[in-house]
């Protein structure tokens, strides 16, 4: 329990630092804005209570907001992502359920499951974030293109990160 808490705290710090010190400073054009910090919410343990998810999402989002100067938009998107996460997990739940004490990683449940699960969460996060940023429907298709391209790039970064930093022993 304590080691899981410490690992998640370190993951929080590392993902926020990577987001605000590296990814924020990489110019990928007007349509691609990756947000790797969402990986923190994606890989929290299955049995994480909903209130902890929402609180973690808020703290994560508001921390990123401080560096991006976005006045709560990342917090709102991260809280929405944390709120909807249990429903998405139930949608993809195996018949026998998830094993207690495990995390939803690519190594534990496989590539198709992980890409489906995290892809939906990332698209929803980006949808909320970018439409809050624009806050009008006159640029609906432009913003939708940003959501889709940024989601694909973010998902690619998430999958690469999963392969680089999660080993099989950690999930067993």
Description:
By secondary structure, the chain is mostly helical. The protein has one domain: Arp2/3 complex 21 kDa subunit ARPC3. Helix content is 70%, strand content 0%. The protein has helices at 2-22, 39-42, 50-68, 73-91, 106-109, 111-134, 140-165, 168-171. α3 (50-68) runs antiparallel to α4 (73-91), α4 (73-91) runs antiparallel to α6 and α6 runs antiparallel to α7. The radius of gyration is 16 Å and the shape is globular. The two termini are 15 Å apart. The model has no long low-confidence stretch (mean pLDDT 91).
Question: What's this entry about, in short?
Answer:
The chain has helices spanning 2-22, 39-42, 50-68, 73-91, 106-109, 111-134, 140-165, 168-171. The chain has 172 residues and is mostly helical. It has a single domain (2-93, 103-171), classed as Arp2/3 complex 21 kDa subunit ARPC3 (Orthogonal Bundle).
Total strand count, please? 0
CATH-derived topology: Arp2/3 complex 21 kDa subunit ARPC3
Which residue ranges are poorly predicted, with pLDDT under 50 across at least 5 consecutive positions? none
Number of helices: 8
Q: SSE order in H/E notation?
A: HHHHHHHH
The gyration radius over C-alpha positions equals: 16 Å
**CATH structural architecture:** Orthogonal Bundle
Q: What structural class do the secondary elements suggest?
A: mainly alpha
Distance between the termini: 15 Å
Approximate shape: globular
Name of the CATH first level: Mainly Alpha
